[in-house]
Write a structure and sequence with these properties.
Blueprint (H helix, E strand, L loop, with lengths): L1 E4 L6 E4 L29 E6 L8 E7 L3 E7 L7 E7 L6 E7 L6 E7 L5 E9 L5 E8 L5 E7 L12 E3 L1 E8 L4 E8 L4 E8 L2
Antiparallel strand pairs: 1-2, 3-4, 5-6, 6-7, 7-8, 9-10, 10-11, 11-12, 13-14, 14-15
């Protein structure tokens, strides 16, 4: 994933493989309906790295080629060994969205995955913890009409995720910041009006 400049207050946002060169979301096409081409997944290199000396050296903790790529990672604010990362792929054999977590600062395991279906694709772009138990991951549910911004929440530190309750039709979520368990902000793209914007979640 790279970055692209926004033309308004959302600033710099991540770019996903689901976007075209101008930063707009491409229409979703099921895997079985695509023209036969060289699989894009052959170029994906998913890696997670860690530094403990201020960036002078980096240790590779996870490395896997030709499946998916990572878009973001965040750690429990009270435990630097407890972190979760979001990943995605647009091509076989791993088309879908993923979350991988570690509880020892070394070994990452998949705690959430949502593979493509015939009618829908899935993307995760960013993730943020608010405390040791609560975190949000954001991205989009993709279909041929318009995507829905996708907000996935965990309340047990990433062991399980609620992926069904929080969506915004017509939008795509590109980044977020979590203030606390009740308050969060997200940078979103309105795919219907082709405008970027900001969304605020206020829990009750």
């Amino acid at each position: 994933a790279g970055q692209f400049p926004s033309d308004n207050s959302t600033g710099i946002m991540r770019k996903t493989v689901h976007m075209n060169d101008s930063g707009k979301i491409r229409p979703f096409v099921p895997l079985q309906d695509r023209e036969p081409t060289s699989p894009m997944a052959a170029g994906y290199a998913a890696q997670l790295a860690k530094t403990t000396d201020g960036g002078q050296t980096w240790q590779i903790l996870f490395s896997q080629n030709d499946t998916f790529y990572f878009n973001g990672i965040d750690c429990n604010p009270s435990n630097p060994d407890h972190c979760c990362a979001v990943a995605e792929s647009d091509d076989a054999p791993a088309a879908g969205a993923y979350i991988m977590c570690t509880w020892d600062g070394q070994n990452f395991n998949t705690t959430f995955q949502m593979p493509y279906t015939q009618a829908q694709g899935f993307s995760l772009i960013d993730i943020r913890f608010s405390d040791e138990n609560t975190a949000w991951a954001v991205g989009g549910k993709l279909n041929s009409i318009a995507p829905s911004a996708w907000f996935i929440r965990t309340t047990d530190g990433g062991k399980t995720w609620d992926a069904e309750s929080h969506t915004l039709f017509g939008y795509y979520a590109l980044g977020l910041d979590v203030v606390n368990n009740k308050l969060a902000y997200a940078a979103i793209d309105n795919l219907i009006t082709q405008q970027s914007g900001l969304a605020r979640y206020q829990g009750v």
